[in-house]
Write a structure and sequence with these properties.
Elements lengths: L2 E6 L9 E7 L12 E6 L2 E7 L14 H10 L2 E12 L9 E3 L2 E4 L27 H14 L4 E2 L2 E4 L8 H10 L3 E3 L2 H10 L3 E11 L10 H25 L4
Parallel strand pairs: 1-4, 1-5, 5-11, 6-8, 7-9, 9-10
Antiparallel strand pairs: 2-3, 3-4, 5-10, 6-11
Helix pairs in contact: 1-4, 2-5
Bound molecules: hypoxanthine (HPA).
Hypoxanthine (HPA) binds next to strand 5, strand 10 and strand 11.
Length: 249
């Protein structure tokens, strides 16, 4: 059975309550990962951890080697992957400090290496992405929130934007018309690469700001940072609870 892996995003260059057993660089056919893959204990469960922006948060969303990261996790025996995602909230239920487990994605990114079926290795492949997240792991995240008595918004559409800039007010209105509830910069191609690799991937999103135009004010890094800091405790609680239930470890 495989391990539970956690991909850390903004605010999670490391996991505060992870006791690291070892940390190894993994060679991949796609080049370097964002960081060595750490193996450690969360509560009494063994998990893998990889910070997608690197150990010192130096990689911008479009500079992340998503292919290497996902490939390295699978090579390290990951079976399930929880992707942490700091997001901007668009629709009313997704205000700052809300936890959410999205169920759909719209991809607005461009120019990223986004597939393993790139025609170079001789394979042409088409994966189904009707349901872009692993339902089993989504349910585990939602159940963990319920056990802990933490409120969570179940579902929602994640709009993956190119970044690193934040959006214009008109862009957010357009994404809202498209059906997006939240925006973030790293959810794609991470989710589709995970599917290509047969990994069970879901996202634990936490809202760190109202998206552009939704609060009537401009967005400051101060508010984002404050909300990131406040998200650490609830996110760690949910991760620890999900790891405890992971049948694989
Ligand atoms: N837009 C895009 N990505 C984000 C945001 C946002 O407002 N907040 C956190 N990640």
């Amino acid at each position: 059975m495989g391990l539970l892996a956690i991909i850390g995003g903004s605010g999670f260059a490391s996991l505060p309550s992870l006791s690291v057993i070892d940390s190894r660089p993994v060679e991949t056919p796609y080049g370097e990962t964002s960081a060595p893959v750490a193996r450690g204990r969360l509560g009494d469960r063994e998990v893998l951890f990889l910070p997608r922006h690197g150990p010192s948060h130096h990689l911008p969303p479009h500079g992340i080697n998503y292919r290497a990261n996902l490939w390295a996790l699978r090579a390290s025996q990951a079976e399930r992957v929880v992707a942490l995602a700091a997001v901007g909230g668009i629709t009313p239920a997704y205000g700052p400090r809300v936890l959410a487990v999205p169920d759909q994605i719209i991809d607005y990114t461009h120019g990223r290496e986004h597939t393993l079926h790139d025609g170079v290795s001789g394979t042409v492949g088409h994966i189904d992405l009707t349901e872009p997240y692993c339902e089993d792991l989504r349910r585990a995240l939602i159940a963990a929130c319920a056990r802990l008595g933490r409120s969570v918004v179940v579902g929602g559409t994640y709009g993956a934007t190119q970044g690193p800039r934040l959006e214009t007010r008109a862009e957010i209105l357009r994404y809202e018309r498209d059906g997006c509830d939240m925006v973030g910069m790293t959810g794609m191609p991470e989710a589709s690469l995970a599917r290509e690799l047969g990994l069970c991937y879901a996202s634990l999103a936490f809202v760190v700001n109202w998206a552009a135009g939704k609060s009537g004010r401009i967005i400051t890094m101060k508010e984002i940072e404050e909300n990131l800091v406040s998200s650490v405790e609830p996110v760690m609680a949910v991760l620890t609870a999900v790891a405890a239930e992971n049948r694989a470890a």
